[in-house]
Amino acid sequence: MIAKSFSDLVFDDVFMELSEVLPQTPVFVKLEGFSATGSIKVKSAVRMIERLELENRLRPECSLIESSSGNLGLALSMACAAKGYSFTCVSDPNISPQTAKMIESYGARLLIVKQHDKNGGFLGSRIDLINAMLAADHNLVWTNQYESINNVEAHYLTTAPAILRQFPAPDYVFVGAGTTGTLGGISRYLRQQSPHTKLIAVDSAGSVTFGQPSGPRYIAGLGTSRPPKIRKHSNFDALVMVKEEDAVRMCHQLAYKKGILLGGSSGTVLCAVQQYAPQISRSACVVAISPDFGDRYMDTIYNPRWVASHFPHFYAPKSTVELSDECVIFT
Q1: Do 211 and 248 have their domain in common?
Q2: Which of 27, 64, 173, 191 is deepest in the core (most CB within 10 A)?
């Protein structure tokens, strides 16, 4: 394979069979981390930019801006660098330090919002800042992943068909809900092409996307503190809410027992598969979306100090835990 641009570096056909998640049947995990910038978000970035160009809303003199907890900001940073646009990413303190450095490495500007919104998160504050900047600069263009139908269509056109190419009749597909672009695109496509498939939406405890009570969240990726408008395109059979501590534990268990390092959103989705296990028959075909790998979470979910500070009971039941910079030592 010889790629001519970053948009050629999207690999939609990589699945991994995991037998450790469910006792009765394997789970086929769609690994999006092999694509350019290491996440599923590259597909949304490419689709939104290309549509803005076709609609003549994005011209050479324009600059792009977007709110992101990490992965979309990184994907847009790369895409804008390749296309010659300046880009500003508005994020918050939950962004992975590694992802923040990578965004800036592409020449993008990174703004960190530190004021919480009314639901205790940062999304509302990030969007307020973007609206203020748009009012002050008419050459600034917002991709707006929370409202853009192109965010949904990116996965209707790519991610969902890729699932059915590999598994023509899956019984269950588990999809995490962040902006709900992935969830909306996959659910719309499966309802049309594989109506018997049960679509299970997965969200983080504390997220308000689907009307659940707000609460603190520390892992970038899934969940919102302000419901995205494109959630109306999501059609699912069940919603599973997962505690962040459980998601971190899943990530660690897969690293130790399977030798695969997944991101926090992936851990959340696989926790949901376990929670939903009583509804899944032994012969079922189960597919789960893994948005990214865990390499950019070394300072957060794979950092013992970070984990201990946010989830004090994570290392229980051991009575005494001494944390060093390199490892966890049980005494």
Answers
A1: yes
A2: 173
Residues 252, 217 share a domain: yes
Q: Which of 181, 250, 182, 87 is nearest to 173 (CA)?
A: 182
Instruction: Identify whether 243 is part of a domain.
Output: yes
The arithmetic mean of pLDDT across residues 119-134, rounded, is: 93
- Considering the domain architecture, whether residues 284 and 154 belong to the same structural domain is answered as yes
Give 283-325 pLDDT, tens digit per residue.
999 999 999 999 989 999 999 999 999 998 887 544 333 444 4
Determine contact, residues 179/155, Cβ cutoff 8 Å: no
> What token pair was written down for 310?
């946010």
In a domain, 67, yes or no: yes
DSSP 20-88: SS-SSS-EEEEEGGGSGGGBTHHHHHHHHHHHHHHTT-S-TT-EEEEE-SSHHHHHHHHHHHHHT-EEE
pLDDT of amino acid 318: 42
Is 278 found in the same domain as 260?
yes
Domain count, the chain: 2
Give me the domain span that covers residue 113.
Answer: 41-142
What pLDDT, on a 0 to 100 scale, did the predictor assign at position 8?
A: 83
Taking the C-alpha atoms of residue 266 and residue 322, their distance in angstroms, rounded to an integer, is 28
Is 320 inside a domain boundary?
Answer: no
Q: Is residue 319 classed exposed, middle or buried when 0-12, 13-18 and 19+ CB atoms within 10 A define those classes?
A: exposed
DSSP strand pairing (328-330 vs 321-323): antiparallel
Q: Quick one: which of 83, 86, 72 has its CA closest to 41?
A: 72
Task: State the pTM of this model.
Answer: 0.91
| Residues 27, 59 share a domain | no
How far is the C-alpha of 278 from the C-alpha of 329, rounded, in Å?
Answer: 36
Same domain, 47 and 166: no
Task: Say what angle helices 97-105 and 71-83 make with each other, to 10 degrees.
Answer: 10
Give me the CATH number covering residue 100.
3.40.50.1100
Rounded Cα–Cα distance for residues 221 and 251 (Å): 14
